[in-house]
Structure formats: structure tokens, C-alpha cells
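TA notes, week 10

Several of you asked for a full example with nothing omitted. So below is the full record: C-alpha cells for the whole chain, then the designed sequence directly under it. When grading your own attempts, check the secondary structure regions first.
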């Protein structure tokens, strides 16, 4: 019986030796050298994994800045609906155009349009950033909504709300934008 235990122990040792031998072969085959491109990707990956402490205000500010950047990109393409998806993909956001009175708007988008219409009376129509909370407790949010109204002056001097661009930015994207600054 002692010989049987000895044989099992030797088998385990041999298997362990094989694993170590294989690992050493892989390491020596690689030579431990990285190409410049691999080194660059490694450093970028390490930078993304770095722990950074951000305040909620930092995240919201970064989302506002990112929303304004996306809106500027939309202006450059002259709001061409065929190119909006490419802008959304490039910035990793969701973009939605909402016209007052249309039923395609989400509840939050409809509320923002109503707020913009009411704000036109007082002359306070400007871009906005909102946190979209997961639950009614308003403790946690995963998305921020940047909205930019498009206002057109009428011949009689009154302004008319043409619609609102809504840009949905994930909290993750806002955090990444804040850490790159």
C-alpha cells in the first residue's frame, strides 16, 4: 500500500512538472519582449484600470462637456440624419431628435420639451444635463441625458421650439471622459 501512495504522489509530481515545464516553454518562446504596439495597448489597458476617485459633480461636468462635444459634431454634419448614427457610434452615445407634440418621445424627453416651452416665456432656453435614475429612490443612476433645444425666431420676434436633441451618455463613458482630462 505504501508503494501505491508513492506512485500516486509521483504521478502528481510528474503532472506538476509537466505544467511548470509547459509554462516555462511558453515564457521562453515569447522571449519576454513586447512589440511597441503591444506595449502601447498594455499601458492603455493599465490606464483604464487605474482607480480614480471622482465626485458626482466631476461625472456630471464631464457628461455635460461630452454632450456639448457630440452636439458640436452634429452641427458639423449639419444634423444630417444619415450621419447621426456614425456620430453616436464614434462617441458611444445614443442620440435622439424629438419634435414637440410627437408621440415618439420618452417620458423624460416629453417633460424636458414641456420645460423648454415653459422656459421660452422667461427666456431661459439652454442646454441641460439630467441624471436618469434607476429607481424612484434616486440613489443610483447609470445614464446621463444631455439635451439641447433648437429654437427658431419667428418674423414677429417670438421664438419657436423646433425640437430637442437628446444625447444619452452612460455613466461609464462620463467617468472615462473625466479621467482623460
Amino acid at each position: 500500500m505504501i508503494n501505491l501512495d508513492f506512485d500516486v504522489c509521483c504521478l502528481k509530481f510528474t503532472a506538476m512538472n509537466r505544467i511548470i515545464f509547459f509554462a516555462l516553454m511558453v515564457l521562453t518562446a515569447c522571449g519576454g519582449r513586447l512589440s511597441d504596439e503591444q506595449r502601447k495597448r498594455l499601458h492603455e489597458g493599465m490606464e483604464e484600470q487605474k482607480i480614480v476617485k471622482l465626485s458626482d459633480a466631476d461625472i456630471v461636468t464631464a457628461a455635460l462637456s461630452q454632450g456639448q462635444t457630440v452636439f458640436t459634431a452634429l452641427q458639423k454634419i449639419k444634423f444630417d440624419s444619415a450621419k447621426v448614427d456614425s456620430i453616436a457610434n464614434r462617441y458611444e452615445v445614443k442620440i435622439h431628435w424629438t419634435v414637440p407634440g410627437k408621440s415618439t418621445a420618452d417620458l423624460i424627453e416629453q417633460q424636458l420639451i414641456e420645460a423648454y416651452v415653459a422656459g421660452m416665456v422667461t427666456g431661459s432656453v439652454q442646454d441641460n444635463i439630467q441624471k436618469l435614475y434607476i429607481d424612484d429612490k434616486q440613489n443610483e443612476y447609470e445614464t446621463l441625458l444631455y439635451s439641447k433645444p433648437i429654437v427658431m425666431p419667428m418674423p414677429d420676434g417670438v421664438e419657436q421650439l423646433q425640437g430637442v436633441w437628446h444625447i444619452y451618455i452612460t455613466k461609464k463613458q462620463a467617468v472615462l471622459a473625466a479621467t482623460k482630462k
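The chain has two domains: 2-49, 56-179. Use that as a sanity check on your answer.
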